[in-house]
Design goal:
It is built from 17 helices and 24 strands. Strand 21 and strand 22 form a beta hairpin.
Length: 574
């Protein structure tokens, strides 16, 4: 039965005071960002789980204030419970403890408990209550080791030295009881590090399982905070400068912010002001400190390969449901549903009579997603099937089963999809390729000489080989056709969001992320542009079912040398 007396929000509003940005003493009434954190924790508490949250936030949204207030509530209503707040440096620790002192000193006289200590960075209530709040600084040593903590707040965790080891020590002191709380919050500090790794892992876990037992990833974009507004002039226009000194790159995202997040002119006006005055005109810094999207927060150390606005539009077109299953049978396979979402296929569109298909197979390399973290997950198999008639991906496989099992599934899938053209990546997919050849499957891609040299000519070599030359070719090709195809799968789009140019200019996945589905998709597009239709010769331009002309850049279809920058026209069917 729900404990109706358990009401942190109203208790904080009635009994706790904060110093506002306007330098006024005011009741702690939670804003939208704070309520989002609170409601997430409540989901776990009501489900009977320990409360665990990872919060990626914009600046000054009040997450620390809510967490301190929530902990202050807990230690006041519960005997012999201990709260610990850990900050990145001494200055931050002093600010956090000053907030706790303000809470204690301004509580109503009838509720204010007597303390044994209310200085030296701790508030300890007199016996028999004996609950305690301690503020600590995350130094180079290991936190914890010897105490019992029920509530832990790690603030600006992305900026801690030795963060992983320190959190590991402190978290061991916290019981796994359903009333305990750990809140780890921070603004972003680039790609990599303990906070990035933990947040992205929690994001992956929750996206796939919706399991409330693990850390919940909570993202708080800047536009949900009501104070981030500024008066807009009467002649304010979205995407156009309102005064001198407003750069075009600042304005480019505005239409998308309005379309996707319903931002007002007043919010956009504040954004322009904040880029110029709070971030010294540095748009990348603004995105890190005041992100609008999850990946924008972690984008500062890697320029994205794919336009995120285009990916957002693609995501809107993705079907909300799909069938998870496996192929069975032999020469005439069937598709059966399974109760799992990994090591199986996800089918968005079944085979259609008269349509032609192709399949790209990226086999796992057993390579860690983050070479610097031995506990990071290894890569996986990624298989994508593309409908060449409608220009959309229709089926995908994601998993890490044995290669012979993958090969058997891919043969059945290829036959199911009207004997699709197939290209396993080699040499790592040689076992998959062998299963295709031993089964007598005929529609296998023959590599062209220009995959390894700048010459266009077919060879006798089966499968797709990713080389320095073909890697650039396939990425450039995929970028150029992105507006003419439908991606259809959120998991594929997510991999594309985290595919960036590193500091050396090499396109690669972010540390801890994956690109298996992406490479499967890029191989499929290469197969599509190079392998013939049953009735059309090379080059492989065609019209769709409605007679609409479908275009491909000449360098995509392999008609021109990729070094020829002057060749810029398009190939259309008549």
């Amino acid at each position: 039965m729900e404990d109706l007396s358990y009401d942190p929000i109203n208790w904080m509003a009635s009994n706790l005071k904060i110093v506002t940005m306007e330098a006024e003493l005011s009741p702690l009434r939670c804003n939208d960002a704070q309520l989002k954190v609170h409601n997430s924790l409540e989901l776990q508490r009501k489900a009977g789980f320990p409360m665990r949250a990872l919060v990626l936030k914009a600046r000054r949204e009040g997450v620390s204030t809510y967490t301190e207030g929530r902990f202050f509530y807990e230690i006041n209503v519960r005997r012999m419970h201990n709260a610990c707040v850990c900050s990145a440096d001494i200055d931050a620790t002093n600010k956090v403890f000053k907030m706790a002192k303000t809470f204690q000193d301004n509580m109503p006289a009838g509720l204010r408990r007597e303390t044994d200590y209310s200085n030296r960075k701790e508030i300890t209530y007199t016996a028999p209550h004996m609950s305690q709040l301690v503020a600590q600084t995350a130094g180079k040593g290991v936190l914890g080791r010897g105490g019992l903590t029920h509530y832990l707040h790690a603030t600006e965790f992305a900026f801690w030295d030795n963060a992983k080891e320190q959190l590991g020590g402190a978290s061991q002191e916290i019981p796994d009881d359903d009333g305990t709380i750990i809140v780890i919050e921070s603004t972003a500090n680039g790609v990599g590090g303990a906070f990035y790794d933990m947040f992205m892992q929690a994001y992956d876990d929750y996206r796939h399982s919706r399991n409330l037992m693990n850390y919940l990833p909570i993202f708080l974009p800047w536009y949900i905070f009501g104070k981030y507004v500024a008066p807009a002039p009467a002649d304010f226009e979205i995407g156009k400068p309102h005064t001198y000194g407003i750069l075009d790159e600042w304005l480019e995202p505005e239409e998308e912010l309005v379309r996707a997040f319903h931002c007002t002119k007043e919010q956009l006006m504040w954004r322009r002001w904040a880029i110029k005055n709070k971030c010294q005109g540095d748009l990348s810094l603004f995105k890190q400190e005041y992100p609008a999207t999850l990946m924008e927060a972690f984008q500062s150390t890697g320029r994205p390969v794919f336009n995120h606005s285009v990916l957002d539009k693609q995501l809107e077109q993705c079907p909300k449901t799909g069938r998870y299953g496996l192929f069975v049978g032999n020469n005439h396979p069937d598709y059966i549903d399974v109760h799992q979402s990994y090591n199986c296929w996800r089918m968005q569109v079944p085979v259609r009579q008269g349509h032609q298909y192709c399949m790209g197979i990226d086999t796992k390399e057993d390579r860690l997603s983050d070479p610097k973290d031995l506990k990071s997950k290894s890569d996986r198999h990624g298989v994508m099937i593309f409908d060449r008639t409608t220009n959309e991906f229709v089926c995908m496989f994601h998993g890490d089963i044995a290669q012979h099992e993958l090969g058997e599934q891919c043969v059945l899938a290829a036959r199911y999809y009207n004997n699709a053209w197939v290209a396993p990546e080699i040499p790592l997919g040689m076992q998959v390729l062998r299963i295709f050849t031993e089964s007598g499957y005929e529609n296998l891609y023959n590599r062209q000489i220009h995959d390894e040299q700048f010459i266009i000519e077919d060879s006798d070599n089966l499968g797709w080989r990713t080389t320095l030359i073909s890697r650039k070719w396939m990425i450039d090709s995929f970028v150029s056709v992105l507006n003419n195809i439908k991606l259809m799968f959120p998991a594929l789009i997510e991999e594309m969001r985290t595919f960036v140019y590193d500091k050396n200019g090499k396109p690669t996945h972010m540390p801890g992320r994956h690109d298996d589905l992406l490479f499967g998709a890029m191989i499929a597009i290469q197969v599509h542009t190079r392998c013939p239709f049953s009735v059309l010769p090379y080059p492989y331009a065609f019209t769709d079912e409605g007679g609409r002309k479908v275009s491909y850049a000449l360098n995509v279809s392999g008609c021109i040398d990729i070094d020829d920058d002057e060749e810029d026209e398009w190939l259309f069917t008549e």
